[in-house]
Give the backbone structure.
Amino acid sequence: MRLVIIGGGILGTAHAWAAVTRGHEVVHLEREREARGATVRNFGLVWVSGRAPGELAIALRSRELWEEIGGRVSGVGFRPAGSITLARTAAELAVAEAAAAGPTAAERGFTLLDPEQVRRVNPALRGDFLAGLHCATDAAVESRRALPALRAYLTGTGRYTFHEGVEARAVTDTGSGAVVLDDHGRRFEADVVVHCPGAAHSGLTRELAGDLPVRRVRLQMMQTEPLGEPLTTAIADGDSFRYYPGFAGPALDALAATQSQTATAAEHRMQLLCVQRLHGGLTIGDTHEYTEPFGFDVDEAPYEHLTEVTEAFLGRPLPRVVRRWAGVYSQSVDPGAVCIRVRAADHVWVVTGPGGRGMTLGPAIGADTADLLDL
């Protein structure tokens, strides 16, 4: 089959990977010279630990696919580093204990570690904490390098063509297939068109699928110079328990009742996530903003909070921050949906809305679409 995929982010690229590796031909259109949205503005984390029970199977499948992809395309920088969520209060420790004793703990690779055990796993953590919830199934990829590496591999198959700086203007279902018109006046004929618009919910997306059950979420993050030593796992703080449905339960309800977040963390709906890039620097975040219109600038208070918490865990000053950024991603508002997948016409599909799970779940979402299309 011949597919035209619109959107060069992680979802579009994951769909291209699924199609090409199953023997099909893909023409891939991206309106920018390079994907510049949430795909490259994230941690690169493949985050199994906090997924809801109903999402655990797809998260584990995606983790397996990332490992397979990493074995074939070294440039994606896949590494099975795991993560440690560090508890600093008794209430946070209770959530970690409940997770480590929960019915899916073995599947997630959960182990509760005391401070000495934490430091054996991740010697860079010399600061103060009560315990750490280790998740062996979490992993990381290089978000800024993964997509070019994947495209280079796919191009080498002879069944993949990437068009950068090309905007799809119209998609027409012909009855036996579909035709895409771009802003250069070209026609691309396909058996199937898959539109992966990211956070672009208007324009072509609305023309094809109407108003979807999605919202946009804004975040702030930062990047440091090299740490100078390995951070062997990703790390998170106890505030992250509040944002991942896999930790829901009485212990989390008790944590929420303590109102133990700082004023800054509560105002900006913050959690600490931190992962070391292959160049040695740390990617650190993040915030959550849900009400549009979003600001065009970034607030300094969240960065000060993230710096303070990370330094408390490391027991040392952070390296110099070299860049800060904001990003926007598309999130399904259907609590039971991993993403929004709509059949806009017989041969046209729209896929978006994985929320902050795009990098984690992208390969499995692409594979599920391919299964649905019987590719």
Remarks:
- The longest strand covers residues 214-226.
